[in-house]
Amino acid sequence: MTPSIQRPLPSSPRSHIAAAAIADAVLILVFAAVGRDAHQRGDVVTGVLLTAWPFLAGAALGWLVSRAWRNPLSVHRTGLAVWLGALVGGMVLRLLTGQTVVLPFIIVALLSLGLLLVGWRLAWAGAGARRLRSA
Description:
Blueprint: H1 14-39, H2 44-66, H3 75-96, H4 103-134
Helix pairs in contact: 1-2, 1-4, 2-3, 3-4
């Protein structure tokens, strides 16, 4: 019986890593902008950044914990970690900085961030599978 050797996952091209990180950040900014537009008016850029930074920091933590640079397009390994990192980290940081954290907002963030951060990876995976079937 030969021992199994676990190989590390091949590193993703830098362009995939950068594109995935940018996509996550942009989608979190979209989440914050839509929320700000629905509830508060005022200084748009500063307001969006104030709302988004805890979620961006949480997503960055999700990237680190999951080592997302190894497979940034993975739905399970990266998408779920970035989503949960953004959600949990974002809510904890909002609490620690005196920002509002109420159950309806947690539910909206759970669903919205999940749809955005996991959803684009699911769409990417589906498009890739479709290309393989048609080839």
